[in-house]
């Protein structure tokens, strides 16, 4: 068979036509934009016309809002994950089983705010390419606004409204109960990584009739709105003074409590001090009373002594000495510690305990001895006490208790003066203690039975020592001698020489 030139040309043309026909294609998609609800899965349609296989072609999905990177790429029969926009990772796929039909639609899962935009479906073969662009809108209705009370602000009540999860960006408005817009602070908008919007806005509201306020968040493109109404109790508006009052009261209360505590502390302290002072004073008072009593007693005694001296005693000792009697000690009455001279004129303290005859008359309470004769008239005798540091002289009734320990006082039948520890004590019913300017070397004892007086004199100085006055004697009086235990010097009964 002969091949003509025309035939050849026809074959070439046919071949060219075939080749051209197999290489050329159109990329098509939907003419309307695609509205995606956030969170849904969507398909972005794209296909070849004629419906030739795209298996050996390169399929690119681009989001035109992102410059360099891709949403998705299929090339060399593989999915190319390099250079993928991070927000699309894991959410995109082709229907690979549909590629042979020229179906290059993209499946996008879990739509989010950032997905909104213009998508280009670009398909390239070795010798041809074409593309188609689809617009995708994302709609997301946010959360119901949350209103929080922020407290007192600039003379009103501060409120904050917040709503999240919107797309596209919504508008937030504050309204009063009549629907009138309230002037509020600048709106604050935040877009999260998924492209959803959070809006919030502060407002300061004044008290109204209703105290009802509404926060409305609206998105006109998607024709959605969400609102929250709050009702503020009117007391809330008065909490400033209340709070102030409360704070002031608290402060006052605290101050009062502190003050009271201090006061109580002080008072208690003071009270203690006062109590101590009172105790001290009481003690002092007591002491003073006692002292005063003592002084009173002593004054009385001294007064009576002075009276006596002035009225009864003349410096003429000689008169008294005329009543001198011869006193001899009665050894039967002598305490076992005492040592008497043989003439019965001296007595001293001896350390030894003498074994003496049992005698009811003997002193066992005091180391004492009596004169052997009792008197009921005027009596005078003198006793040498020179160098002695301790003695007791005077007169006692015969029946004086000689066994028990007691102070020898008039009440018990004793009128005595004692020297001990450098002090003289007249054993009156209340003891009278005194010191003498001149220590007597010889003591004269004078008794006026009728007058009821017992007087003691410093013989050398011719001075008065002490007198018991106003006594009532009903029994005979016996001279009483106690040489004391602190020295062993004798008490010596001296002969009285009227001319001495
Ligand atoms: C592509 O394939 C998917 C899955 O079968 C289908 O939903 C879609 O409608 C197809 N698109 C076109 C343009 O054929």
UniProtKB/TrEMBL annotation:
Q: Which residues form the Ig-like domain?
A: 39-135, 145-231
Domain of life, per the record?
A: Eukaryota
What keywords is this UniProt entry annotated with? Answer: Immunoglobulin domain, Membrane, Signal, Transmembrane, Transmembrane helix
Topology class, membrane: Single-pass type I membrane protein
| Transmembrane parts of this sequence | 244-268
A Pfam family hit: PRY
The B30.2/SPRY domain sits at 307-500
The record's subcellular locations are: Membrane
Signal sequence segment: 1-22
Query: Principal place where this protein is found?
Result: membrane
| Alphabetized PANTHER family for the sequence | BUTYROPHILIN, BUTYROPHILIN-LIKE PROTEIN 9
Q: Which family does it belong to?
A: Belongs to the immunoglobulin superfamily. BTN/MOG family.
| Official protein name in the record | Butyrophilin subfamily 2 member A1 isoform X1
Species of origin reads Salmo salar (Atlantic salmon)
Question: What gene name is listed for this protein?
Answer: LOC123724367
